[in-house]
């Protein structure tokens, strides 16, 4: 639902303003958890900068640029293969052949989906969504090695960092904010409340907790529901066009993502037995 809500909000409000409102709400809820000490401050700073204004700025910009919600949502799921890749590059974790195959399959799926005549009009938005996925992949990898920081504190810091940066970015680079706010419908405000409270405070905090304590293979099957629900909402309520090629490309992408997650699960299970 959050992806469809992002598209709904950015159809009325500028993307950086959407992010600022979201994290303003999240900051109000989580500020009580942000207090010293701040161990491993370099990792925290990377999480706050890359996982906050960079990742969400790119993601909201992608939905703002896109005609349909579905292709952008599917492309953004490449954050899971990116997580495995960055875990190899940053943490030195092993990358199996199955994971490499899964990465290749996932990227081929996104390429095939994008080459559809309808989806091709959103190719710029899809590229921006892939960049947002890469930024989130870096964030989750760094979060893995910061297990001493409680998830609510980590998400509070992310929100506290993202809010002023995105608000400043909106003030400098966007225009017509006040007129957009006045024209926002109750559904737009509901989507912002959902993003700021349910998604940022509850869902993302839970995700940080899971990546700190569980391998991606145990978490990813639940996350794969996200693009399916978003595509159904986009097709049923928002007028998305789902051609056979878009559906096939999406399925190939999700298959590759699942393969990456299962390969990592197998690696960690083998390591635990050893």
From TrEMBL:
InterPro entries noted in UniProt: AA-Vitamin_Transporters, EamA_dom, EmrE-like
GO CC terms, sorted: membrane
Segments crossing the lipid bilayer: 12-33, 45-66, 72-91, 98-119, 125-143, 155-173, 188-210, 222-238, 244-263
Keyword Membrane: yes
UniProt entry keywords in alphabetical sequence: Membrane, Transmembrane, Transmembrane helix
Compartment(s) of residence: Membrane
Membrane-related topology note: Multi-pass membrane protein
Taxonomy, superkingdom: Bacteria
UniProt keyword Ribonucleoprotein present: no
Domain (EamA): residue spans on this chain: 6-114, 124-261
Family listed: Belongs to the EamA transporter family.
Protein name (Swiss-Prot/TrEMBL): EamA domain-containing protein
